[in-house]
Amino acid sequence: MMAQPSIHATTAATSGGTVPPLVVEHMAKSYDHHGRIVPVIADLSLTLREGEIVSIVGPSGCGKTTLLNTLCGLLVPDTGNIRWHGREVTGQPQNVGYMLQKDLLLPWRTALGNTMLGLEIRGLAAAEAEDRSRALLDQLGLHGFADHYPSTLSGGMRQRVALARTLVNEPDVLLLDEPFAALDFQSKLLLENDMLALVRKGRRSLLLITHDIEEAVSLADRVIVLSKRPTQVKAAYEIELGSDRTDVIALRERPDFSHHVRRIWADLDVVLQ
Amino acid sequence: MTADVDTAMAHAAPPLAPGAPSSTRRRWSRLRAAIAVLVTQLAILIVFLAFWEHATPKNSAAAFMFGSPSAIAGFLGQMVRDGSLWRDTSITGMETLLGFFVGNLVGTLIGLSLWYSRFVSRVVEPFVIALGSIPIIALAPIVIIWFGTGLISKVAMSTLSVVIVALVTSYKGAVGVDPDQINLMKTLGASKFQIFRKLVVPASLTDIFAGLKLTVGFALIGAIVGEFMSSSDGLGHAIFKAGSLYVIPKVFAALVVTIALALVLTFLVGKIERLLMPWRHHV
Q1: Which of A209, A240, B49, B264 has its CA 20 to 30 A from that of A61?
Q2: Where in B7-66 does DSSP place strands (E)?
């Protein structure tokens, strides 16, 4: 509560006075491992502004996934607080989309059926859910594959369906945990591009957890670097790569792109083990 | 760079060419492999039957002890003519199907619903293991005292042979669901019942069907053991009667029919599985 005025001050300065969709303040989380307390996240604060894309990078095992699961309400933080649109939420936050490296598609549902899952759970009329899902699958280049089972789709296409399943619920905030890590380079670039276009167009906020620094820099407005465990924020960088940020392939050619990548790489505590 | 991207797009499209020559050739070679397997199986069967027939000449001691394929065929013909084949098969088939159905229904319902409560499942676990370790045949005398010598006691035997297996396999399927998938359902706002209905039940189908295939045989064993104990018809009764009269070829004849019944029932379960789980056969 003490920190509230200062948070409001920073947001007022940066995004025109609206309440940011996600504010994390001094969050800590530890695990009980056979009776021994293992601190995973020591002290973490971050703000995700409306329409902003923030990447989080950190050395492996730094608790990125713990952070994401805590944000989703699947874990409860030990201390600190998480505010969605200015309010603390118990359980699952509303209007938050969640996507992992594993596509987690249900094998007994077609691409369309998987996309409709969230709308179905919320009790939307089947016809409307189907129309919206089909339209989104088309936008993601899956026209003609709506009635295919996941087992007949390639890895890139499956992850596109997973993205459609996340976006069709029109979440304000997207939480993505290494969503493209399992894809080959080309599928990854294509999917990053399509995702970026949809997220920017919908003015959605995106928190992207990744270990791929180039991905972090090419997609995000801001990159937050986490320290080793117990985790805290080590550095944050504003990524300024011109106004047109929709073509990740062209972005990677810019000289300042590699400059950003090198700076962040130097910040990561990467040691050979 | 753009060229790479284009080829990646082209690769993303699956090679759909049902009429292409390569696909027909592939189908043809698959068919030939299947035929080769079938021919080899038939050859083994024929050699086995020929040896059996040759080793058991008519009216020899060997023919009395081991029967012979021709004598077995003779009894099969007789059983068809006097109508006992159809009567015994339909009675045993009915007992088996009823036991299979009731046992799997009850077992699967309990097994799946145990997913709901970790507490309840931990409480019942040792009881389930204890019940599962009872040899069903040891229950036969009690079952006959409780349910009489008619259809019900055989169905009860058959049900008892099935129910614990069905319970354990379906429970295993339900608790084996990927926790990440459950988390995903939670983040989509699913209630516990929605998670159960939309995720746990369909995800358990693979295990449930593995249980169904296993329990076809168990249901048949239960029915036949029930008939052994006390009955006036059914394949178990035919086997038991022919055995006590030392008519070995007739025992084999009834056994052949029993095997055929088991094969037909297993085949039907496989068909239903394919109907209910089409996604597994779309690869």
Answers
A1: A240
A2: none
Which residues are bridge partners to A233 per DSSP? Answer: A226
Give the burial string for B54-93 (b: 16+ CB within 10 Å, else e). Answer: eebeeeeeebeeebbbebbeebbeebeeeebbeebbebbb
What topology is assigned to B78-281 in CATH? MetI-like fold (1.10.3720)
Domains and CATH numbers, chain A: 18-95+188-273 (3.40.50.300), 101-170 (no CATH)
Contact call for residues B225 and B153 (beta carbons, < 8 A): no
* Contact with chain B for residue A181, Cβ under 8 A: no
Chain B contact for A65 (CB, 8 A cutoff): no
Quick: pLDDT tens for A209-218: 988 888 888 8
Structure confidence at residue B157 (pLDDT): 94
Kindly give, in sequence order, each residue whose CB lies less than 8 Å from that of residue A221, ignoring residues fewer than 6 positions away: A52, A53, A54, A238, A239, A245
Q: What is the pLDDT of residues A20-54, one digit of tens each?
A: 889 999 988 888 888 888 888 888 899 999 989 99
* Chain A residue numbers touching B273 (CB-CB < 8 A): none
What residues pair up with A98 in beta bridges, in sequence order? A175
Full DSSP string of B62-112: HHHHH--HHHHHHHHHHHHHTSHHHHHHHHHHHHHHHHHHHHHHHHHHHHH
Q: How far is CA B152 from the centre of its chain?
A: 21
| The one-letter amino acid at B16 | L
Using the structure block, give the residue that is written with the tokens 């060229």.
Answer: B3
Question: pLDDT band at A14, cuts 50/70/90?
Answer: very low
Q: Would you call B12 and A154 a contact, using CB atoms and an 8 Å cutoff? A: yes
Backbone angles phi, psi at A113, to 5 degrees: -60, -40
Asked if A95 has any chain B CB less than 8 Å from its own CB, the reply is: no
pLDDT digits (tens, 9 = 90+) for B170-206: 999 999 999 999 989 988 889 999 999 999 999 999 9
**Range scoring the smallest mean pLDDT among A129-138, B6-15, B211-220:** B6-15
Which DSSP letter does residue A127 get? H
Contact A268, A58 (CB under 8 A): yes
Residue of B nearest to A143 (CA): B13
Question: Which chain A residues are within 8 Å of B178, Cβ to Cβ?
Answer: 104
A161 contacts: CB under 8 Å, gap ≥ 6? A103, A105, A111, A114, A115, A137, A140, A142, A150, A153
Could you tell me the residue ranges of all domains in chain B? 22-51, 78-281
Model's pTM, two decimal places? 0.79
- Backbone torsion region of residue A57, taken as left when φ is above 0, otherwise alpha when ψ lies between -120 and 50, otherwise beta: beta
State whether the Cα torsion B272-B274-B275-B277 is positive or negative. positive
How far is the alpha carbon of A140 from chain B, nearest alpha carbon, in Å?
12
For the record, the structure tokens of B244 come out as: 């006590």
- Are A176 and A198 spatial neighbours (Cβ–Cβ below 8 Å)? no
